[in-house]
Design a protein that fits this description.
The structure holds 2 protein chains of 2 kinds. Among the domains of chain A are: about 90 residues; about 90 residues, 2-Layer Sandwich (TATA-Binding Protein); about 110 residues, no CATH class; about 90 residues, no CATH class. Chain A is about 35% helix and about 25% strand. The longest helix of chain A has 30 residues. Chain B is mainly α. Chain B has one domain. The chains are: A alpha+beta, B mainly alpha. Chains A and B meet through α5, β8, β11, β19 and α13 of A and α5 and α6 of B.
């Protein structure tokens, strides 16, 4: 008789597609649940081995101890005594998951849970999310409604029906923060949680339980099966141990597995994704962000620049810090292109004491007390010139519009009467802080000067000396409490995805007279498995007549 | 193919030394890297077992990609470009190389799935060989796609962390990034459909074939738009025909 589990979890198992293939009724007749303390009956043979790889470390260690104990434990499964402990656990877990009060209330969340953890639903959700994202890249985001009136006009709809009404009501113009998209993501997250809870965690319990198969037919029904005449199951055990399997031998039957981590890793993947989602939510609701362009020599207070992103954002003491841009400078390639831009920053606290000083550049930010300052951009603030030995004058440089990433700045020095409507003057253009190009009143090219050279230039009778080019630094500030969580999630995701590539292989064997019947299955490396098994089985020694009868007596007795 | 592998390796190393930075900063270099990855994927099973279905895919892919890169279509960008400040980081090596390796593996796997679908729907092949061939294709495509998925995950995550270090925000719905996420999602769907025995073979092959198109869009299509943070990869077709 066996009713190892209450019907609740049984239905769950059958529902979950992950386990569909591995659950046949005859799987359960002999489940050794280890809970009773060891008794002193020694058994003839008990093989355990430590795997060389470390991923199995945790589970194998605990299992190994339990194995030694259980070899002595009498009647572990027959009377269900040892299983008594197993039973309440899944039941209570299921019951507990159902809520605290009332039968109906208990059942409702369970139903919701089981619906949510349905795999095709999850697949459908993933498809929808992917389609929405694709749509979000096809439709230009964040434009004014006018843009959509033009692009998706009502009298000539795209694809026959897609007008601007669709776009604006469904929120497709801000797809990635629209209710539909976020709702879909939330649904996916709940599915993920439900699936992890209902199918993956019980999977851990089941996979950790090692089962012996006691009939030759059951073994032959496995994906891969072989019989070795004139062999001993103990020799097989030794060969398997040498190949890195963890082997358990009880009487004439043997169970070995390898790569158990490959079974658990998908759970880790799902948990890591949940962690990332939590961290992402925290970032979205609890962080501060700000952007500022500061000319060289000026300063700002952090708190003035940072703005909250959500309702969980709370400012810290560090917000009172004053940031001073000591110097902004750029490095150039020999060809004249920009190589890198740097800003020398000093941080002062409320008392005016300098608490930090660092030169930052792109990909090298400043971190102070949870706030990070990134170098993201640069600009041209002003040109310092002397005109006819008067000055110095600071002419503000304005950015001129260009295509792509190239920048162009310009300024204008009026010559003559600056109140007349048609004022003429000297124009100065610059692409970077290196060299300034000057044009005369007619717009004709006059010359190029470098700010450090102090060489004068005569244009239309005016003598100009370019003294300095003052740049301004584009800084982005950010504080984000969710980052450590998200990083932890990323690391876990990478690791668990790696591990889930491993294949979980299980092998059963039974000594049937002088023949050993072997069956095995694996969950990933299916094609290579028969070859690998054949190689292993070739190494099992064939027993010669005289020792055969002794062997079979010893084992079956 | 081994000779091809060494040639491409030599090309990449030479370019690295000459440029002073890792040769992965624009589309031309990433295409060379892609064909290099194809040749690696070709060689690994080749060293284990000589006859292999995968080689029928990887060898032509490598040659085709290399040919496309060197062809007249993209002459403007053959010259080695200098790195803009945003690209001067150690992360460049890890992120882009992982992404390209992932793309190569996923492309192989999804091509195998396309082949699987083609074979399923052909009437003129006998039953037994057909079934066996389909099973082998299915298995190989599963393994290669799993590997590619792993690389893609690492690539996306390293790119995200890099973005956080450089600009302070690890996700910003940039088209290329979004499409990489879409690719990841599609292949996650593929892996999940495989867990269900009923849907297993054909449906997963359909999903993987969609994945092929999506990778194409992600890698090339987005670059044609020329906008967003990944605009280093953009190019225009110029012909000197």
């Amino acid at each position: 008789m066996y009713t190892l589990k209450p019907s609740f979890s049984k239905t769950l198992f059958l529902k979950s597609p992950l386990l569909r293939s591995s659950f046949k009724p005859q799987f359960f007749p002999y489940t050794t649940q280890i809970s009773s303390p060891c008794s002193s009956t020694p058994l003839s043979f008990s093989i355990t081995c430590k795997l060389k790889t470390s991923e199995d470390g945790k589970s194998s260690k605990s299992l190994a101890k339990k194995i030694v104990l259980s070899e002595g434990a009498p009647a572990v499964s027959e009377d269900g005594a040892g299983n008594g402990e197993a039973q309440p656990k899944p039941a209570s877990k299921g019951g507990g998951g159902g809520g605290g009060f009332g039968g109906l209330v208990k059942r409702f969340p369970r139903k919701v849970l089981s619906r949510l953890s349905n795999l095709p639903l999850a697949i459908g959700e993933m498809f929808t999310v992917a389609a929405l994202m694709a749509l979000g890249t096809a439709i230009d985001q964040g434009e004014a409604p006018d843009y959509y009136f033009q692009k998706f006009p009502e009298d000539n709809p795209v694809l026959g029906f897609f007008t601007w009404r669709w776009v604006l009501t469904l929120g497709f113009d801000h797809m990635f923060s629209s209710p539909i998209f976020l709702g879909m993501l939330a649904l996916l997250a709940t599915s993920l949680m439900a699936c992890t809870y209902t199918t993956q965690i019980p999977l851990v319990k089941v996979a950790r339980r090692w089962n012996f198969l006691h009939s030759a037919e059951a073994i032959r029904k496995q994906e891969f099966s072989e019989s070795l005449p004139k062999a001993s199951v103990r020799d097989l055990g030794v060969v398997l141990m040498g190949a890195g399997y963890e082997v358990f031998l009880k009487g004439p039957s043997l169970y070995a597995f390898k790569g158990l981590a490959g079974r658990f890793a998908p759970i880790g993947v799902h948990l890591a994704m949940l962690l990332i989602m939590v961290g992402g939510t925290l970032s979205a609701t609890g962080s501060f962000r700000g952007s500022v362009t500061v000319p060289q020599g000026l300063n700002f207070v952090m708190g003035d620049v940072l703005s909250p992103s959500g309702f969980l954002s709370t400012p810290t003491k560090a917000f009172d810090t004053e940031v001073h841009v000591n110097r902004f400078y750029m490095d150039y390639y020999d060809s004249g292109e920009v190589l890198q831009f740097h800003t020398d920053l000093s941080l002062f606290d409320l008392n005016g004491k300098e608490v930090m000083r660092k030169t930052i550049s792109v990909n090298d930010p400043l971190r102070f007390d949870g706030i990070t300052i990134y170098q993201t951009d640069w600009s041209f603030s002003a040109l310092q010139i002397r005109k006819d030995d008067e000055g110095p004058f600071n002419l503000a440089m304005a950015p001129l519009k260009l295509n792509g990433d190239k920048k162009l700045f310009g300024t204008f020095l009026p010559v003559g009467d600056s109140d007349s409507p048609n004022v003429k003057g000297i124009s100065m253009l610059a692409r970077d802080l290196q060299s300034i190009v000057l044009y005369d009143k007619e717009g004709k090219f006059a010359g190029v000067r470098r700010p450090n050279s102090n060489l004068p230039i005569d244009i239309d009778g005016t003598r100009i000396v370019i003294e300095d080019a003052i740049g301004s630094s584009g800084l982005d500030l950010k504080t984000d409490p969710g980052v450590p969580i998200v990083y932890a999630g990323f690391g876990a995701l990478m690791l668990t995805t790696c591990i889930s590539y491993l294949s979980h292989t299980q092998i059963w064997a039974l000594q049937d007279g002088t023949t050993v019947v072997i069956g095995g299955k694996t969950n990933r490396a299916k094609l290579e498995f028969p070859d690998e098994m054949n190689q292993l089985l070739d190494r099992v020694p064939e027993l010669v007549e005289s020792s055969l009868s002794k062997q079979s007596d010893a084992i079956s007795g | 193919m081994i000779a091809t592998f060494f040639c491409i390796t030599g090309l990449l190393v030479t370019r690295w030394i000459y440029l002073g930075h890792f040769p992965l900063s624009d589309l031309y270099e990433s295409l060379i890297f892609l064909s290099w990855s194809f040749s690696i994927i070709h060689i690994v099973p080749y060293l284990k077992k000589h006859k292999n279905h995968l080689s029928a895919l990887t060898a032509p892919s490598a040659i085709f990609t290399q040919g496309f890169a060197t062809s007249g279509l993209l002459t403007e960008i053959h010259q080695s470009e200098i790195l803009v400040p945003a690209l001067q980081s150690q992360w460049l090596m890890m992120h882009v190389s992982m992404m390209v390796l992932g793309y190569a593996a996923l492309l192989c796997g999804s091509l195998l799935s396309v082949a699987l679908l083609v074979i399923t729907f052909r009437q003129d092949i006998k039953n037994y060989y057909k079934a066996q061939f389909i099973q082998q294709l299915d298995h190989w495509s599963y393994r290669v796609i799993s590997l590619g998925f792993l690389f893609l995950t690492i690539g996306i995550l390293s790119g995200t962390v890099w973005a956080n270090e450089a600009w302070g925000s690890y996700w910003n719905w940039d088209p290329k990034k979004t499409w990489a996420f879409i690719t990841w999602t599609i292949f996650a769907i593929y892996l999940h459909t495989r867990t269900n025995k009923n849907l297993q073979v054909e449906n997963s092959a359909i999903v993987a074939s969609m994945g092929f198109l999506i990778i194409f869009i992600c890698y090339f299509g987005v670059n044609l738009l020329g906008i967003g943070l990944h605009s280093y990869g953009s190019f225009t077709f110029s012909s000197n025909l």
